[in-house]
Every structure is written in structure tokens, then in C-alpha cells.
């Protein structure tokens, strides 16, 4: 799958309680398929996908496309694999934090996951996108959208209601995360010493407001 | 390493496959990165595309560059080391060390970083030269960074716009050679591919963790520790497999295995050993530590590894063992609450700094002190069920309950109190464990899971191990105490009155400290809090209460651990047990999650939280919480300006980056810093900045810690996101600190710049300059400016009317009248309240506070607090700590405080840092002492204090 013919290797990691649909979401994203059968992930797994990232210039004109190789780590939500999965946190550049909209506990545990991330990730405030999965099961919904949004806002992270079953918002969530990462990358490689023009030429992409929020937290890099 | 033995074979296989795929991807990536420089000329671009930006960020946090995948891989292959293997390791040590050196950059097991660093230095030139081998593999890019490390090169100022990319690179990187991890990986791979049966990679991984044991062959005990480890783990997981899934959490099973290991096999042996340890021979005690380690199995052992390394103490294994022992002791004491406690904490605290001799002395002292008590409590032990003479005896009780009579009896006559502690602790743990399974103890399991997570995955975060330890011990205690509690509560109810009388009987023989403590513990309700009533004590109420109080507080404690905020039904109680622990822990204390700073004191504080409340609870033992006093003195800021003579210079530059709205502080280096650790002739300096006053709460920024150097080179940029306008009212405080893993960090000097006067447009202001470090003048960080003042009156009532019997103890009345001109932290919306503690007792019971007076900087409280149990001579040893806080929903902010006492620096013969009253404060206290039954009023300026951390 990977032939090295890409510009960036970006590593994400999906985490969240067991059964919230991490594997399914990634499967939907990479393969566009859905399997309703619950197969618990053994420890750790990953999927890959090649995408093209096109940051928008300040004038709205798309910049040069960058070929991204995504490595999407899938972790076991089960407690017993916890020590194993957390070891992988440090290698991910961004995180998809999932909970199950039909399972309130999984939502309540989001906090714990975030603190786990803050503890184990490569920096104290890694980029995270919160996904309330299984949005297709509207009739079984246990978590209010406002509540989830509020929580996400509290942490200053984007929130999406996704459905691995019908693919709703799945790529959007992951692309948002990618966008955050690319932005962070630009920030990390410090441009403060570089004349203004250079900074500009790197361009800014569309989700400016998200970025704003992220900026509030100190850049950990 | 992570313990993965819980994985089934199939699972291991599946995971290995995933890792294989990952390895392939990595190889591709390495290949790509290697060719990148040919295509991409722009350095920034290159950094992005190679992922170096990420690895740099990561390495700032996780000092190693290990991939999680590699950790897992290594962990899975790892087999329990047999004795033979250990021996083999020993013999092959020489060969390995070269390999290790070469690979150092690649595989630096984080836990061992300190050790390795040390070894590096020991090997001196050799290692340097072999180190040089590594970079050859790296692209030129890394060269300059290295050079910057080895030769302190004058740097170009990044704030000058002519800066080249090179500089940028340097500024961003740490002093440790930055190697593109992919490239390093390459090495590993080639190694592992080449190597015969067991790949080098694996060897490296498996062996490195053992290296400290292997290399330090003169410390055989280390090996002793090592060996039992795998065993314990095995046991754990047998147990775990059969148990529920939750049992997979590492620490829990560990305890289970203790149950099997400790009790099942050698209870007597353990006892014997530890009782022999009551001798002051340090050797013996080391072995005792080991004993404990063994019993605690893997968990403790790991922690020890971490610790030893952290302090870089492994070089003096003796020392480290000593230290860890101390640590253990602290942990134990706080939970067990022997009678000997009072002096313990302060002494331990100092002992920490002064080294082992202090501890020895201390032990002796304590032993002798406790002879009397010992005999007392022994007497009681024989009738264990009836008289709960404190936790000590109740611990024994538990033993009995669990049918371990033999141990209990073995423990009795000749054991000194001190040696009992570890034993008891372990027994408690042991014996309780089986119970634990039956009793749903939510808290403990939560804590456990926390700690397990942290520990297993974070062994690599060397810095955290301290915290982990605390977690670990906390969890130990949580359930030990839980059970103790349940046993105890009953006993309390049954024999409330009895215990009191017993206590009073023994009181006469005790030394003053104990007595004082006893008295304070005797105060069933320590003090009355009366609002708007200047004086008047309500002794009746007090007398009526005791029984109920005891039982109640037992309940309280059990809830404290699980849900500290649970409101109590009894409003009266609420008053007494105010639980507004200021959150300066999170806010201001100098602990970093990722660094060691003042973590030890932090963790002690945490350890003590629940246990010491338990201690207090079992107040029939007469054990107040003196122990927890100065050990957990926490500073709001970094504290301990200690005795280090400030010297040296710091080189830095500052700039405001308009595009980013950021203030950048480029910390280059320091020169000729003071020696912080005189004993070991070293300093581990880091630089910290604050924007003052802390109006915008931007907090501190820190550089990395450079170990063992007086001339650290940082080249790090610290940033604040802040509007330029706002900087006008700010000053930038740059301070240099020695990072002490166990003790407090010591202050090495500071520079303060008034940013209001700063001309950002003047290029000369952007230049890198040397600044002489200055000693901290007075009030910490926050300028001495007016913190406001407090009007109050004190009165000593030697013979309170209506007191029970004709006790020779009096009461201290504190009438907090009002405050003036409190510093308005948030405009004039200041909601202030005052908290009062009588040191040395920091227990929750000793804490009182006023109501919160809202929205004024001149609050009127008119609140009288009464503390009883003071003999005239106690007044000389005690100190009233009054602190003013701004009450906020999320956190209370410290505004200022007073410490009213004699300011002698000592309490009951122990040096304490809170006896630091100013002359005004001292004068007030003296007046009060000299004119009993009279209100002495004064208005005193509030000052910055290192607030004694209140135990719950």
C-alpha cells in the first residue's frame, strides 16, 4: 500500500470506550464499508489511506495539493488492553476520540480519555476531534447533541456526530483533524524568525475558527 | 517495558502482525525521509515532511524516542529473567556495553535515562567517542545541534531577522542530539536483521532495563530485587486470567500475588527480618526495603527503578535505597499512624536533604521515644478486639480477623514500633487483599486503575514515577485503610469511652509532642467556630459531642476517599470539616506533570490526604496529624529558596512576535550557576518564567532540565500568547531552579525585567544579553506590593470555664475582625474568606474558616475561632496560620497570610519552615502569651506564605 510516494506521513489514533465504533469508523473511512458485526479489536491495529490535502490560501484559492499518507491506528477500547494502547498514544499526531451516542457511559468517559491523552500523548494538548458515533441510531440516542458540543467546547476541540454505518461525517471528522495537524505543524516549525512573506506563502486553510480555539491552548511543540 | 503477559498467545500473535505491518510502513517512511533532502531544499518544509516537527515535540515530552510499537514489541518478547540469565548478562556486560553505547540514541529506555547519562560520564571520553559514531549515520542536519551541545557555541540571536534556518533548527531542538527517529530506526532494524538467534534489538531492549542491576554489581541487592519481579508477574497473571477482566490491571493483581507470595510463603521470615531491622544498621534496613519490594512484587520494584534513576542516585545505590526506604517509610507512616508520628514528618523532611544519617538518628530517636508507648500498645494488643488503640492495633486486628494469629503474635513483644510499620503495612495489604474482592470499594479500584494505567504505560515517563509511586501507595492505602476502617469503626463504637481512658492513662509518660498531639486529637471537636460572637466558648456542646463525633468522622473518612465532596447531613459538621482545599496544587505548585520539579512534596501531600484523615479519625490512638505538617508544606510558588548562594549569569533574549501575538523568550544558557546539591556537587538547572503580576494567569513556562551542570545550554524558546498592550503592565520574571527529584527545587537566581519600559522596536533590546542572576529579595514572585492587612485580636484563656476536670490546658481565641486593602485580583469583585490552621497540626480538624465576604477588598469577618488543648508551654511551639483567599467557583486564590507564633524556626525541637513569623507577628503572639484572658488586638500586614498544605 505504501510505496513512499507521498509527502507526509500523518499518524492518527482512534480511541474511546469499547464498542463505540472505532474500528467501524476507520473501516468506513478507508474502505467505505460497514460491518455491523461486533468484532473486538485485539490490542491494536491500523489502517492506511492516501489523501490529498489542499490547504486554502488566504485568498480562498486552493494551494498546492499535498499527498498525505494516513496511518490510522485503531485501539482496543477494552480496559484490559489499556497499558498496551496507551503506549501508542505518544506516536500519534492527532486523535479521534469516539463515544457512542447511544451509550451515555461512553460519553461520560470522554473526560477520562482526554486526560489519558494529556498524559500520554506527545504533548500536553494534542489535537483531538470528538466524534459521537452511531448517529444513525437516532431512536436510541442517549447523549444530547448540546451536551456533547458543550463538552467539546470546554476542551476546545471540534465535535462531529458521525455514523460509521452510513458514513455520515466520517471523512469530515478525519479531515478536520488532518487540517488541525497540518496547521499545528506549520506553527511548530517556528516561523517567527522568518520574514512575513514566507509565512504567508504557506497558506491558511479554511477552518480558521477551529484553529483559533486550538491556539488558545499553548502549542505543545 | 510494559507487562503484557496477560495477552494470550493468539493475541500476541495478532498484535505482532500489526507491529510487523507498522514496521514495514516505517521502513518505507524511513526510505522516503532519507531521500527527502534531495527533493526538498527548504528546511522548514523538510522538517514538516519528515515528521521531524512531531518527533521534536514528542521528545520534549517523552525524552526517549521510542515508538510505542517498539515498546510493545520489546515487552512481548521479554521473558522473565532467570537467575542464569542475569548471570549471563553479567558476564556479557562488557560486550554489550559497546553496543549499547552505539545504540544509545536509538534505544534509550526512558527509565534509565539518568543512569545512562551517568554512565556516559563515567566512561567519559570513550563514551563520547562512541557516541560520535552514531551521528555518522545521521544527515548533516543534526550536526550543528550536536556541536551546540558539546561546545557551548555562541549563538546567533533568533530575534534578529537575519537569522538563518540553521539557527531556527537549533533554537527548536534540545541539547540532546536530535536524530531523525526514522533514521535511528533504521539502525535498529539492520541490527535486528543481522543478529543471530535473539536479535540484537531484543537483546538491547531486554538488557538495558537490567543494566543498572547488572552493571552495579557491587549492589547485589539490586539483583535480588530483580529476580523476584518476573515471578511476581507470573503469579499476577495467573490470578488475573482466572479473575475478572478488571483484574488485569497491573497493580491489583500485584497485590493479589502479594497475598500469595507474601503470606502464603514466608510470613514468618518477613517478620523476623523486619524486626531485626529495628537495629540502626543501615545494611539491615536496606534489606528490609528489599523485602518490602519483594512483597510488593513488580509494582514496587519498577517504581524503584524509576526512582533510582530519577535521582540519578543509582550511582550511590546505598543512597538510593536509603531514599526509597525513606519514601516507603513516609508512605507507611502516614497510613499506619504509629504513635511515634509527631516528629516524624518534619524530620523526614529534613532527612531527605541531609541524607541517611539523619534518618538513622531519627530512627533511634523515635525508637527510644516510643518505648513507653510501645509497651502500652503492646498491652493493648493482647486484647485486640476491644481496644482500638489506634490504627496500629487495628491493623493487628485485621490480621486476626484474617486468621493470621501467628503473625500477630510474632509481631508483638520485641518489635519496635518503627520496624513494625513496614511489616504492618505489608500485612495489611496482604491480609486485606482477599477481602478486597468481596468488598466493592469503588475508590480503591478506581485509583488502582488509574495508577495501573499510568504506571504501565508511563514507566517510560521517567518523571512520573514519583507520582505513580504516590498513586500506588495511595491505592495501597485506600483499600487497606478502607478495611481498617470498617474494622475500626465498629470497634470505635464499641469502645469509645474505653479508649479515651486508656489514652489518658498513658498520657503521662509521653513526651510533650505526643502529648500535644494527643490533646489535639482529644479535642473531639477541635475548636468552635463562632461567628459574630467575640468570645464565649461552648464547652457543653463539645462535651456532648465526642461519641457521635467519632463515629461520624469515621463515616466521613470513608466518604472522603470515595467522594470528598459529599455533603454531610449535619450542618454543624460541615462547618467543622470545611473541605475547601485550595487548588493551588493544580494552579501554582511547581509540579509539572512532565517534570519532576517539586513533585515529591506534591505526592507526599497526596499520599497523606486520605490516610491522614484516617489517622485523625482513629483519634483514640492519640495520633493527631502532626506528622503531616511540614512534610507537605507546599509552596504556592516554587518555594525553598533554600541556602543556595545565588551566583552566575543567564543569557537570553526576548522579543514580541507581532504576527503570532506572542512574547518569545529565548533562553540561551546559564553560566557558573551555584551548586544546589552540595553533597553531590551538582545542579540540575532549568529556567522558568512568569509574567507578573499573574493577572492574566498565563502561568509559567519552563525549559528542560539540564542535568549535572553549572553551565546549562538550553537554546529554548518560551512563549506567551499575550497582547502586546497587556505587556506594558507586566514584568518578566526569569528564574533558574535546581530540579531536585525528591526534595524541593532550589532557587538558583533570577532576573526580572520590567516590560513596561521595554522598547520592542529597539533592535538592541532584541539582542541576546547576559544578565547576572540575583537572589530573590523577598516576597516570592509577586512583588512585595501591598497585599493588604488584617485586623485581628488574640486571647489566651488558660483555664476555660466549664472545662472538664481541672485540665491544665487552655484555649486560644482568634478573633478575625476584618481585612483592608486586599489585592484585587479580579477587579473589585473579590470574595474573600480566611482560613485558619494551628501548626504544627494541619489536620482537617484543626482547620477553620470564616464565611466568604463577597465583592469587597475590605471584608469584615468578625469571626472568632477557638482552639483548645493548649498548655502554656505549647504556645511556644505552635503557630497560627491565617490565610486569606479569594473564593472562586473553580479555585481559591491565595491572597496573603499571617503566621503568628514565636518565629523561632523550631517546633518541639524540630526545625520547621513555618515558624517564620515576622517581628510584628511575634510581638502579637508574645503579648498574648504574657497577658492571658485579655484580647490583644493588632493590624498586621498580610504577606506571602508558603502555605502549609492542609490535610483533609
Automatic annotation (TrEMBL), chain A:
Keywords for the protein's UniProt record, in alphabetical order: Acetylation, Disulfide bond, Endosome, GTP-binding, Hydrolase, Lipoprotein, Membrane, Methylation, Nucleotide-binding, Prenylation
Region (Disordered) residue spans: 200-221
Cellular component, GO annotation: dendrite; exocytic vesicle; Golgi apparatus; lysosome; melanosome; multivesicular body membrane; photoreceptor outer segment; secretory granule
Enzyme Commission code(s) on record: 3.6.5.2
Domain of life: Eukaryota
Reactions catalysed: GTP + H2O = GDP + phosphate + H(+)
CDD domains: Rab27A (cd04127)
GO-annotated biological processes: antigen processing and presentation; blood coagulation; complement-dependent cytotoxicity; cytotoxic T cell degranulation; exosomal secretion; melanocyte differentiation; melanosome transport; multivesicular body organization
Location relative to the cell: Late endosome; Membrane
GO molecular function: G protein activity; GDP binding; GTP binding; myosin V binding
PANTHER family: LD44762P
Assigned protein family: Belongs to the small GTPase superfamily. Rab family.
NCBIfam families: small_GTP
Protein name (record): small monomeric GTPase
From TrEMBL, chain B:
Protein name: Synaptotagmin-like protein 2
GO cellular component, one term: plasma membrane
SUPFAM superfamilies: C2 domain (Calcium/lipid-binding domain, CaLB)
Compositional bias segments (type: Basic residues): 228-237
Start and end residues of each stretch annotated as Disordered: 118-288, 303-368, 406-616
Span of domain C2: 646-771, 786-915
Keyword field contains Endoplasmic reticulum: no
CDD domains: C2A_SLP-1_2, C2B_SLP_1-2-3-4
Residues annotated as domain RabBD: 1-57
Positions with biased composition (Polar residues): 157-171, 440-454, 496-505
Keywords: Cell membrane, Exocytosis, Membrane, Repeat
Stored PANTHER family: BITESIZE, ISOFORM I (PTHR45716), SYNAPTOTAGMIN-LIKE PROTEIN 2 (PTHR45716:SF5)
Basic and acidic residues bias spans: 201-226, 238-250, 353-368, 455-480, 519-531, 539-550
Matching InterPro entries: C2_dom, C2_domain_sf, Rab_BD, SYTL1-5_C2B
Protein localization: Cell membrane
GO-annotated molecular function: neurexin family protein binding; small GTPase binding
Gene Ontology BP terms: exocytosis; intracellular protein transport
Amino acid at each position: 500500500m505504501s510505496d513512499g510516494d507521498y509527502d507526509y506521513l500523518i499518524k492518527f489514533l482512534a480511541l474511546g470506550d469499547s464498542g463505540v465504533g472505532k474500528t467501524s469508523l476507520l473501516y468506513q473511512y478507508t474502505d467505505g464499508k460497514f460491518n455491523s458485526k461486533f468484532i473486538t479489536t485485539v490490542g491494536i491495529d491500523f489502517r492506511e489511506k492516501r489523501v490529498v490535502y489542499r490547504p486554502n490560501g488566504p485568498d480562498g484559492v486552493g494551494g498546492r495539493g499535498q499527498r498525505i499518507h494516513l496511518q490510522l491506528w485503531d485501539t482496543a477500547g477494552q480496559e484490559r488492553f489499556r497499558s498496551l494502547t496507551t503506549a501508542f498514544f505518544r506516536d500519534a499526531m492527532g486523535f479521534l476520540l469516539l463515544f457512542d451516542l447511544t451509550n451515555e457511559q461512553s460519553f461520560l468517559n470522554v473526560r477520562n480519555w482526554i486526560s489519558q491523552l494529556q498524559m500520554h500523548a506527545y504533548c500536553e494538548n494534542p489535537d483531538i476531534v470528538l466524534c459521537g458515533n452511531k448517529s444513525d441510531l437516532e431512536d436510541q440516542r442517549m447523549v444530547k447533541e448540546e451536551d456533547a458540543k458543550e463538552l467539546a467546547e470546554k476542551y476546545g476541540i471540534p465535535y462531529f456526530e458521525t455514523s460509521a454505518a452510513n458514513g455520515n461525517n466520517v471523512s469530515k471528522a478525519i479531515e478536520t483533524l488532518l487540517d488541525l495537524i497540518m496547521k499545528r505543524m506549520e506553527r511548530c516549525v517556528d516561523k517567527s524568525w522568518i520574514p512575513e512573506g514566507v509565512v504567508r506563502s504557506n497558506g491558511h486553510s479554511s477552518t480558521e475558527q477551529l484553529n483559533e480555539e486550538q491556539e488558545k491552548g499553548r502549542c505543545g511543540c | 517495558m510494559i507487562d503484557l503477559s496477560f495477552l494470550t498467545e493468539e493475541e500476541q500473535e495478532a498484535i505482532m502482525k500489526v507491529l510487523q505491518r507498522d514496521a514495514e510502513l516505517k521502513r518505507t517512511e524511513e526510505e522516503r525521509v532519507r531521500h527527502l533532502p534531495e527533493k526538498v531544499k527548504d528546511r522548514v518544509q523538510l522538517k514538516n515532511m519528515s515528521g521531524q516537527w512531531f518527533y521534536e515535540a514528542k521528545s520534549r515530552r517523552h525524552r526517549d524516542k521510542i515508538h510505542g510499537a517498539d515498546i510493545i514489541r520489546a515487552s512481548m518478547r521479554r521473558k522473565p529473567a532467570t537467575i542464569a540469565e542475569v548471570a549471563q548478562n553479567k558476564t556479557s556486560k562488557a560486550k554489550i556495553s559497546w553496543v549499547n553505547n552505539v545504540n544509545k540514541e536509538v534505544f534509550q529506555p526512558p527509565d534509565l535515562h539518568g543512569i545512562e547519562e551517568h554512565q556516559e560520564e563515567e566512561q567519559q571520553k570513550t563514551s563520547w567517542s562512541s557516541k560520535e559514531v552514531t551521528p555518522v549515520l545521521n544527515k548533516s542536519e543534526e550536526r550543528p545541534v550536536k556541536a551546540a551541545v558539546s561546545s557551548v557555541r555562541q549563538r546567533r540571536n533568533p530575534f534578529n531577522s537575519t537569522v538563518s534556518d540553521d539557527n531556527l533548527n537549533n533554537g527548536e531542538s534540545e541539547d540532546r542530539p536530535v536524530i531523525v527517529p526514522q533514521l535511528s530506526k533504521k539502525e535498529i532494524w539492520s541490527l535486528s536483521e543481522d543478529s543471530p538467534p535473539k536479535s540484537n534489538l531484543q537483546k538491547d531492549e531486554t538488557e538495558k532495563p537490567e543494566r543498572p542491576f547488572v552493571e552495579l554489581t557491587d549492589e547485589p541487592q539490586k539483583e535480588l530485587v530483580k529476580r523476584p519481579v518476573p515471578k511476581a508477574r507470573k503469579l499476577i497473571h495467573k490470578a488475573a486470567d482466572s479473575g475478572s477482566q478488571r483484574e488485569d490491571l497491573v497493580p491489583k493483581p500485584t497485590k493479589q500475588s502479594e497475598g500469595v507470595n507474601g503470606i502464603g510463603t514466608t510470613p514468618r521470615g518477613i517478620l523476623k527480618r523486619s524486626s531485626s531491622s529495628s537495629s540502626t544498621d543501615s545494611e539491615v534496613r536496606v534489606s528490609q526495603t528489599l523485602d518490602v519490594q519483594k512483597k510488593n512484587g513488580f509494582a514496587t520494584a519498577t517504581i524503584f527503578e524509576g526512582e533510582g534513576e530519577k535521582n540519578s542516585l543509582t550511582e550511590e545505590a546505598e543512597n538510593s535505597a536509603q531514599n526509597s526506604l525513606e519514601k516507603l517509610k513516609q508512605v507507611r507512616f502516614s497510613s499506619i499512624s504509629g504513635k511515634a508520628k509527631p516528629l516524624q514528618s518534619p524530620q523526614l523532611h529534613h532527612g531527605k536533604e541531609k541524607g541517611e544519617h539523619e534518618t538513622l538518628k531519627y530512627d533511634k530517636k523515635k525508637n527510644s521515644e516510643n518505648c513507653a508507648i510501645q509497651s502500652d500498645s503492646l498491652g493493648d494488643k493482647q486484647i485486640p478486639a476491644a481496644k482500638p488503640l489506634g490504627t496500629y492495633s487495628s491493623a493487628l486486628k485485621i490480621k486476626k480477623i484474617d486468621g493470621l494469629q501467628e503473625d500477630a503474635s510474632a509481631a508483638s513483644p520485641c518489635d519496635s514500633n518503627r520496624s513494625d510499620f513496614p511489616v504492618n503495612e505489608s500485612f495489611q495489604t496482604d491480609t486485606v487483599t482477599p477481602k478486597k474482592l468481596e468488598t466493592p470499594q469503588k475508590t480503591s479500584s478506581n485509583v488502582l486503575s488509574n495508577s495501573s494505567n499510568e504506571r504501565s504505560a508511563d514507566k517510560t515517563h521517567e518523571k512520573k514515577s514519583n507520582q505513580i509511586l504516590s498513586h500506588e501507595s495511595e491505592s495501597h492505602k485506600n483499600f487497606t485503610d478502607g478495611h481498617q476502617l470498617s474494622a475500626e469503626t465498629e470497634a470505635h463504637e464499641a469502645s469509645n469511652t474505653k479508649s479515651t481512658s486508656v489514652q489518658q492513662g498513658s498520657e503521662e509518660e509521653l513526651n510533650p509532642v505526643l502529648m500535644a498531639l494527643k490533646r489535639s486529637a482529644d479535642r473531639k471537636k477541635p475548636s468552635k467556630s463562632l461567628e459574630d460572637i467575640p468570645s464565649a466558648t461552648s464547652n457543653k456542646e463539645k462535651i456532648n459531642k465526642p461519641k457521635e463525633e467519632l463515629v461520624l468522622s469515621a463515616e466521613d473518612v470513608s466518604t472522603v476517599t470515595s467522594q470528598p465532596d459529599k455533603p454531610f447531613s449535619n450542618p454543624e459538621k460541615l462547618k467543622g470539616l470545611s473541605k475547601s482545599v485550595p487548588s493551588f496544587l493544580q494552579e501554582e505548585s511547581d509540579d509539572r506533570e512532565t517534570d519532576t520539579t517539586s513533585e515529591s512534596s506534591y505526592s507526599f501531600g497526596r499520599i497523606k490526604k486520605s490516610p491522614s484523615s484516617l489517622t485523625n479519625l482513629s483519634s483514640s490512638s492519640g495520633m493527631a496529624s502532626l506528622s503531616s505538617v511540614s512534610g507537605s508544606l507546599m509552596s504556592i510558588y516554587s518555594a525553598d529558596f533554600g541556602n543556595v548562594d545565588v551566583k552566575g549569569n543567564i543569557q537570553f533574549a526576548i522579543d514580541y512576535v507581532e504576527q503570532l501575538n506572542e512574547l518569545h523568550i529565548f533562553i540561551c544558557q546559564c553560566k557558573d550557576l551555584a551548586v544546589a546539591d552540595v553533597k553531590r556537587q551538582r545542579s540540575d538547572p532549568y529556567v522558568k518564567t512568569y509574567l507578573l503580576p499573574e493577572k492574566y494567569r498565563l502561568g509559567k513556562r519552563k525549559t528542560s532540565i539540564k542535568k549535572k551542570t553549572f553551565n546549562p545550554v538550553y537554546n529554548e524558546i518560551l512563549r506567551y500568547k499575550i497582547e502586546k498592550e497587556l505587556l506594558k503592565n507586566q514584568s518578566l520574571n526569569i528564574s533558574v531552579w535546581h530540579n531536585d527529584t525528591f526534595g524541593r527545587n532550589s532557587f538558583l537566581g533570577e532576573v526580572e525585567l520590567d516590560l513596561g519600559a521595554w522598547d520592542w522596536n529597539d533592535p538592541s533590546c532584541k539582542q541576546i544579553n547576559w544578565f547576572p542572576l540575583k537572589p530573590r529579595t523577598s516576597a516570592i514572585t509577586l512583588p512585595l506590593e501591598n497585599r493588604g492587612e488584617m485586623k485581628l485580636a488574640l486571647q489566651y484563656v488558660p483555664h476555660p470555664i466549664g472545662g472538664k476536670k481541672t485540665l491544665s490546658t487552655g484555649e486560644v481565641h482568634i478573633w478575625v475582625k476584618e481585612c483592608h486593602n486586599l489585592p484585587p485580583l479580579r477587579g473589585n469583585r473579590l470574595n474573600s474568606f480566611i482560613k485558619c490552621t494551628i501548626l504544627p497540626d494541619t489536620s482537617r480538624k484543626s482547620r477553620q474558616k470564616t464565611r466568604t465576604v463577597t465583592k469587597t477588598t475590605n471584608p469584615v469577618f468578625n469571626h472568632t475561632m477557638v482552639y483548645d488543648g493548649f498548655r502554656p508551654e505549647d504556645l511556644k511551639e505552635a503557630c497560627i496560620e491565617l490565610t486569606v483567599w479569594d473564593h472562586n467557583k473553580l479555585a481559591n486564590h491565595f491572597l496573603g497570610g499571617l503566621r503568628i507564633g514565636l518565629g523561632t524556626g523550631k517546633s518541639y525541637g524540630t526545625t520547621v519552615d513555618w515558624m517564620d513569623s515576622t517581628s510584628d507577628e511575634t510581638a502579637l503572639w508574645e503579648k498574648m502569651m504574657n497577658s492571658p484572658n485579655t484580647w490583644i488586638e493588632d493590624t498586621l500586614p498580610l504577606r506571602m506564605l508558603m502555605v502549609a498544605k492542609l490535610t483533609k
